[in-house]
Amino acid sequence: MGDCDLLIVDDQPGIRRLLYEVLSEDGYRVEAVAGGREAIDKAVLLRPRLILLDMKMPGMNGLETLIELNKVYKDATAVILMTAYGELEIVMQAQKLGVNHYINKPFDLEDIRALIKSLIPDGAEIDRSRDIV
Question: Which domain holds residue 25?
């Protein structure tokens, strides 16, 4: 599909670095950015197959990023929303904006790996179902 398998969007450098290293070692082409505006620019440029998007970030939160992304980026990209704040209202808004899965922080790396593999298996189309983890 694009020049990148996974785009990680998280303002916490430790989480960004951990996910980048682990998922790169798993063979994915990974890019990582710290905020929403940068994520939109990278998504348009690199056309990732999946975006791991943090909910709470300074400047532009995850939902705001999704709204803007939906305006300029039309490719069918899977989105996993990551947050430490498991509010039902946020989950419902995220689903309406096209989030495939919602995962709470702290998360288990094996759960993230399995979820990514289920959303972007080699040669398969992206599953656009709306599930919550």
Answer: 6-119
